[in-house]
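Q: I'm building a small set of examples for a reading group on sequence design. Run inverse folding on the following structure and report the sequence directly after it, with nothing in between.
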């Protein structure tokens, strides 16, 4: 996939890995795959499409892509168990093969969507899924 041409993302290829360079307002939020999947469905219910990667390995980390342009980035809003990744971090994108296996999209970016979701909306959705659930 030509991520640069389709989405304007800064990418480079190193061996079997396509690397996305986080820059400008492009940020990522890494979280355990289970709450990430639930947060993703909640975002979709609100008609917000958020690209979501699944990184291979024992930890089963999922990584959302988001836009932090024109909004304050408040690191204290990042829920426990999540990591906010900003420039100059890089992420592997499909069809990359990394230690542990293939990187894949849980929800691929949609070229028909107008940009990425705001990081604040994304963090809010993830926070709701990270809160303890009451029994019953």
């Amino acid at each position: 996939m030509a991520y640069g041409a389709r989405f304007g993302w800064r990418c480079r290829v190193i061996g079997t890995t396509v690397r996305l360079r986080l820059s400008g307002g492009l940020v990522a939020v890494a979280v355990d795959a289970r709450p990430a999947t639930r947060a993703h469905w909640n975002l979709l219910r609100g008609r917000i499409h958020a690209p979501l990667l699944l990184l291979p390995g024992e930890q089963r980390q999922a990584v959302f892509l988001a836009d932090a342009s024109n909004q304050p980035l408040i690191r204290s809003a990042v829920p426990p168990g999540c990591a906010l990744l900003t420039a100059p971090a890089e992420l592997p994108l499909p069809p990359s093969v990394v230690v542990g296996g293939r990187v894949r999209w849980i929800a691929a970016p949609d070229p028909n969507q107008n940009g990425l979701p705001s990081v604040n909306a994304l963090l809010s959705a993830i926070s709701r899924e990270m809160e303890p659930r009451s029994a019953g």
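The mean pLDDT is 87.
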